[in-house]
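Forgive a beginner's question, but would it be possible to get a protein, spelled out as residues, together with the matching structure tokens, please?
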Amino acid sequence: MWQSNHNLAALIGSRICHDLISPIGAICNGIELMSLDGRPVTPELALISESVDNANARIRFLRVAFGLASPEQMMGRPEITGILEAISAGARVQFDWTPVCEYPRTRVQEVFLALQCFESAMPQGGTVTVTRADDDRWEISGPAEAHRPAPQLWQALADPARPAEVKPAQVQFALLPALLTERGRRIAVEVRKSEIVLRF
């Protein structure tokens, strides 16, 4: 049976993440066994360990953002913040997840895609804050620059009828409004002097 374009893309994303988890986990286990042997931790080994941790954290994030999600799958605050803390460890961009409830994975997927939009527009780093507004909408804000990666990408978030051309590193700008349109919702983009605010 044929899948919709979005479902097919999600299946591909899930498959790639699934296939990468095993070899990265094997490397992690190998490093742990080496440390149990009493071998000194060399700078090279420490670098490999740090890189493996970063790769594992990024895959967990991408699995939620681009993988197949079901409304029946729920994600709680500990799982969400654990993923965000792992990918922001030692990074310039930090994440402040304020909601305390659990949410369907499809909703968290939308927020993670929005966070990727912010990441690509924050060369100086900073903190992206995620809250739930009184009208049960997400509000995501941070010191992003509206001209990065390109002004038309932020404009296209609010107007899916006028899609912008995206590069591979900008695919989140195309996928987020497409998913929200498919789910009957829209994004409001507010560009302020020193930050951008997304509501959906």
In short: Residues 73-200 form a domain with the Heat Shock Protein 90 fold (CATH 3.30.565.10). The radius of gyration is 18 Å. Residues 26 and 88 are 23 Å apart (CA to CA). The beta strands are 74-75, 93-97, 103-104, 126-132, 138-142, 188-191, 196-199.
